[in-house]
Design goal:
By secondary structure, this protein is of the alpha/beta class. The protein has 22 helices and 33 strands. A hairpin with a 6-residue loop joins strand 3 and strand 4. Helix 4 packs across helix 12, helix 9 crosses helix 19 and helix 13 packs parallel to helix 18. The longest helix is centred in the middle third of the chain and has 17 residues. This is 4Fe-4S dicluster domain-containing protein. Keywords: 2Fe-2S, 4Fe-4S, Iron, Iron-sulfur, Metal-binding, Quinone, Repeat. One of its GO terms (biological process) is ATP synthesis coupled electron transport.
């Protein structure tokens, strides 16, 4: 147990743990120390000096943001000398800072503005020669150098949290500025986190600029609707004109502790503007009366999923959702070995890790929240990160310490090798040890392309690690040997110190898998689609037979990757029918959808808490007080490992269903600000194998589907696997993401 450090701040007795600074201890105890450049989720920038304090017996001022306390030290946070120091710092910050508060987007929430008023800087006694600093337009982001105070927050968060490392300081004294790193243009994933952390109006959203003042906007707390990370955000809304409807003007996050990807920040305009249509509603009721099944996506709330389950029982029909079904089957196989329903890990566990294995996911685009957690672990803990996948990923190069490149389709063999290496000294039972003893390692290593030296190197790099995490992606859940892979993952979690994080594909894949009893999807007549394809379609997207609200127009809950039930709220009103209206037409009668929140199954870990009683905030120190964690549920551990199947071979041209940065689905496709890169991306080697060239229009045949795309030669890719986006097409979410394909040039 770490010894606590006892000291005083302004006469108050406080304690610090190892690694804490004077500033963090002060904040924990509600003692105010002003800062300008400090941000909780990065290492201290230490550029503003606003946080200086006095330490008794120490000459000069001490930076509280990066100074740990010593036993018995007496800290003073405010006196005349400190006040004078901070006033002078503010005067330096205000030198020639343009007085544009009347039109600046940051006015009303500007740290410089607030601190200038706090320290009563009413006049400027000196100035410096102004510089020509042209506005920089970087796509979704504008940079105004004349407003920049060089706090360096943007640089730190880009490098230490996001992992893009796309900007840097160009030092030059008073001429210093922020510039793209190693490029004339900004080359990044456009998460917009630099905008969020900027304390002034230097970095702004080009789509929001000059559209509204901060104090005019209403704030709606919600949960991001684009992936399973469950990131907290606020929709900022206002009427679009004097008599106009409300509109989402921008999205913000609590940047001190949380981050958003670009889709979460800029892809907010996916609402459904359709109005009530009684005739369409009546046709919907008739369609459901004659339906054999409802097919639905996981882009729905828990409450909607519960209503669909009630409709299944009422109408005696089937429910199809391949995304949630394969996830649920994977987790049931996991439970048969682990003896519990839910995986043990979380995003926070990844952040705190010093050793991580990621397998079966192009994680940077599949789930940016996981990527940011991995970056934090790498930059702050020096974590060793093994990235196991058939394809290298340039976005992960800054944090990956070992690339374990395996052959497509051999995930079961790779998991067996990892489990054997991790558990070689574990106290397994006889049948489990027999499974590993019977493995043909020569065959597995040859077919997977993973050698013993790679596994040995991994073990050596992990030797001193104290917090280890295994991250499992969707490639494994949709694999034909998913059940055995899940059991191997459970075995690693059960007999080692690895925590396990299983990454759901869509925003509420996990919730749906816990709520609904799902049938295997069949190509049968009489299927009604709910945010999915069907003969009759109920959807929040265009072209539906009945329009319903999108996720930014609903109250309800979803379940995140952390096994946390998270509330979301209505940002924009929907003037039409909801699933609850349909249910009421069949005698399933509650006046509001959220009345079902407290009825969610306790057998799968829900707590029966009413929606209006769910908390939805982060504490001043960043603790997540949104919703609640699912209760752990014990399961019968009667599963046994199966003998490994023959490992498949994928020859010829292969496509990998993987969306580009900032795109996830048809809802991000709808967002105006997000780029729509729907090219087939492939390497020069793929180009030769497929006999196509950069810019060619090609027809891609996979499974029973045919689509046309333009081919784009990508210098960052290698091998004969090409990336095929799915955000603009409908692809079965339950199928293995690597597919053999036939590709021909369209004449």
């Amino acid at each position: 147990m770490n010894k606590m450090i006892n000291f005083t701040i302004d006469g108050v007795q406080v304690q610090a743990q190892k690694g804490e600074t004077i500033l963090t201890v002060a904040r924990k105890n509600g003692i105010y120390i002003p800062t300008m450049c400090y941000i909780s989720k990065t290492t201290p920038c230490a550029s503003c000096r606003m946080c200086v304090v006095e330490a008794k017996g120490v000459d000069g001022f001490v930076l509280s943001c990066n100074t740990p306390p010593t036993e018995g030290v007496e800290i003073i946070t405010n006196n005349d000398e400190l006040q004078n120091e901070r006033v002078n710092i503010m005067k330096l910050y205000d030198v020639n800072h343009p007085l544009e508060c009347g039109v600046c987007d940051k006015s009303g929430e500007c740290d410089l503005q607030n601190k200038t008023l706090e320290f009563n800087v009413e006049r400027q006694n000196f100035s410096a020669r102004d510089q020509l600093r042209p506005l920089k337009k970087w796509g979704l982001i504008d940079y105004e150098p004349s407003l920049c105070i060089m706090c360096e927050k943007c640089v730190h968060v880009c490098n230490e949290v996001i992992g893009d490392d796309a900007i840097e300081v160009q030092f030059g004294g008073y001429k210093s500025t922020i510039i793209p790193k190693g490029s004339d243009v900004l080359d990044c994933t456009f998460c917009g986190e630099c905008i969020a952390v900027c304390p002034v109006g230097a970095l702004t959203s080009s789509g929001f600029k000059y559209r509204a003042n901060a104090w005019e906007l209403g704030r709606v707390p919600a949960t991001c609707a684009h992936c399973s990370a469950g990131c907290p955000l606020e929709y900022e809304t206002r009427h679009s004109s004097i008599n106009g409807a409300n509109e989402i003007f921008r999205v913000k996050n609590n940047f001190e502790f949380t981050s958003l990807c670009g889709a979460g920040r800029f892809g907010f305009d996916f609402e459904n503007r359709e109005n009530s249509d009684e005739a369409a509603f009546n046709r919907t009721i008739e369609a459901l009366k004659n339906a054999k099944a409802i097919r639905f996506s996981s882009m729905i709330t828990n409450e909607e999923a519960h209503i669909l389950g009630l409709l299944k029982e009422k109408l005696g029909i089937k429910l199809f959702n391949e995304d949630a079904r394969v996830f649920g089957e994977f987790m049931r196989a996991y439970s048969s070995v682990s003896g519990k329903l839910h995986h043990s890990g979380s995003l926070d566990a990844i952040k705190q890790s010093d050793a991580v294995i990621v397998i079966g996911s192009r994680i940077a685009t599949d789930n940016p929240g996981v990527r940011y957690a991995l970056t934090t672990a790498s930059k702050h803990n020096g974590a060793k990160i093994v990235y196991a996948h058939p394809m290298e990923d340039a976005l992960m190069q800054n944090v990956t310490t070992q690339m374990m490149k395996y052959e497509v389709g051999t995930e079961e063999g790779v998991m067996a090798l990892l489990a054997h290496e991790i558990l070689k000294d574990a106290d397994l039972d006889d049948s489990e040890r027999a499974f590993f003893n019977d493995l043909d390692f020569g065959y597995i290593c040859a077919e997977t392309n993973i050698g013993e030296e790679e596994l040995s190197f991994m073990s050596k790099s992990f030797a001193r690690a104290k917090k280890r995490t295994l991250v499992i992606g969707n490639d494994l859940m949709a694999h034909e040997r998913a059940a055995n892979i899940a059991k191997l993952a459970a075995l690693i979690e059960k007999y080692s110190d690895f925590s396990l994080v299983v990454v759901p594909r869509e925003v509420n894949t996990l919730g749906v898998s816990l709520i609904n009893t799902l049938d295997h999807d069949e190509n049968i007549p009489g299927v009604v689609g709910y945010n999915a394809k069907g003969e009759f379609v109920i959807s929040s997207l265009e072209g539906a037979d009945l329009a319903i609200p999108a996720l930014n127009q609903q109250e309800g809950t979803v379940v995140s990757i952390d096994n946390r039930v998270l509330p979301t709220n209505v940002a924009l009103q929907f003037n039409g029918y909801t699933l609850n209206d349909i249910a009421r037409a069949f005698g399933i009668d509650k006046d509001e959808t959220i009345k079902y929140t407290q009825e969610l199954s306790k057998e799968t870990g829900f707590k029966g808490i009413a929606f209006d009683n769910l908390e939805n905030f982060l504490s001043p120190m960043g603790e997540d007080n949104r919703g609640y964690l699912l209760d752990e549920v014990a399961c019968e551990a009667n599963g046994e490992l199966e003998e490994l199947d023959d490992l498949p071979e994928f020859n010829g041209t292969i496509i990998y269903h993987c969306d580009p940065v900032l795109q996830f689905n048809n809802y991000t496709l709808k967002a105006e600000q997000l780029p729509k890169d729907n090219f087939l991306h492939g390497s020069a080697q793929f180009s030769v194998a497929a006999r196509i060239s950069d810019g060619d229009l090609v027809e891609i045949s996979f499974g029973g589907d045919k689509i046309q795309r333009k081919f784009k030669l990508d210098s960052e890719l290698k091998g004969t696997v090409a990336l095929n986006p799915t955000f603009d097409i409908s692809v079965d979410a339950g199928r293995y993401r690597f597919e053999k394909s036939k590709i021909v040039r369209v004449m």
